[in-house]
Amino acid sequence: MSSNSTDDFLESLSSSSSSSSYNYSVQTILLAVVPKFPAALSILGSLFIVLDVTRSQKRRKLLSNRIMVGLSCSDILASTVYFLGTWFIPRGTTGQYGPIFLAAGNTATCNTSGFFTQLAICSPLYNASLCLYHLLS
Predict the structure, then answer these.
(1) What's the DSSP call for residue 105?
(2) Are 88 and 112 spatial neighbours (Cβ–Cβ below 8 Å)?
(3) Cα separation, 67 vs 102, whole angstroms
(4) pLDDT confidence tier of residue 14, bands split at 50, 70 and 90
(5) Are 81 and 75 in contact (CB under 8 A)?
(6) Are 99 and 22 in contact (CB under 8 A)?
(7) Where does the chain show beta strands of DSSP type E?
(8) Residues paired with residue 98 on neighbouring β-strands, in sequence order
(9) pTM of the prediction?
(10) Does residue 14 contact residue 25 with C-beta atoms inside 8 Å?
């Protein structure tokens, strides 16, 4: 797609109101859609690491690999929350750039998303553990 056709596509999304009464800004659409691609790649990469380590008896024995499995599981959880992103936000919520694109949740889903986002603190802790392991070994 050329830049001009991409701009036309985004403008058509922001100006169409067939499914709702909201007019979404280009920034809101991009902020809702763009994070889904790297989150999906992160989920796939982490899933590959988990499967690769857990399928081999030899790889499961190494402490660094077990830490990597914990890090990857934590990353799968965090990336899933990032992928679902705006779907958890209550419908009709307005952000800095206007109504939030793809907001379809309610207060309970928003609270659930917040809980799992905070639980994602495990990723940097596993990363620190892996650094410490390599430093001391």
Answers:
(1) B
(2) yes
(3) 35
(4) low
(5) no
(6) yes
(7) 94-95, 98-99
(8) 95
(9) 0.81
(10) yes
